[in-house]
Amino acid sequence: QVGMTPNHLCLLYRQINGNSIIADLKKIRLEQAAGMLAEHRSISEVSAECGFHDLSYFYRSFKQYYGCNPGKYREKIG
Q1: DSSP 3-state assignment of 5?
Q2: Cα maximum dimension of the chain
Q3: pLDDT in the model for residue 29
Q4: 3-state class (DSSP) for residue 32
Q5: What is the reported pLDDT for 25?
Q6: Residue 3, SS3?
Q7: The pTM is what?
Q8: Rounded to an integer, what distance in angstroms lies between the CA atom of residue 46 and that of residue 44?
Q9: What's the rounded Cα separation, in Å, for the pair 31 and 66?
Q10: pLDDT number for residue 31
Q11: Got the DSSP string for 35-70?
């Protein structure tokens, strides 16, 4: 639809933004998850609604991005 291959589009995106499309999408999902945790929703519900269908992957990704697991993050923000 945009007149280029998916690989070329991904390459251009990385050159312009410094990250891959997947990395930026993961960042958006994690930031959305952090907001949902502030609403005191269950961690597994937040994980699934943000597109993380593997709870352990969600925990690892969240800890890597925020420096703590989702439960500790929730405690910090009150």
Answers
A1: coil
A2: 48
A3: 98
A4: helix
A5: 97
A6: coil
A7: 0.85
A8: 5
A9: 9
A10: 97
A11: HHHHTT--HHHHHHHTT---HHHHHHHHHHHHSS-H
The b/e string for 3-31 (b: 16+ C-beta within 10 A; e otherwise) is eeeeeeeeeeeeeeeeeeeeeeebeebbe
Amino acid identity of residue 54, one-letter, is D
Show pLDDT as tens, one digit a residue, over the chain (78 residues). 778 899 999 999 999 999 999 999 999 999 999 999 999 889 999 999 999 999 999 999 999 999 999 999 999 987
Q: Which amino acid is at 71?
A: G
Tokens of 19: 């990250």
Decide if 58 contacts 47 (C-beta within 8 A). Answer: yes
Q: Per the structure block, which two tokens stand in for 62?
A: 């969240």
The reported pLDDT for the residue numbered 70 is 97
Question: What pLDDT score was predicted for residue 40?
Answer: 84
Q: How far is CA 76 from CA 19, 26, 58, in A?
A: 28, 22, 18
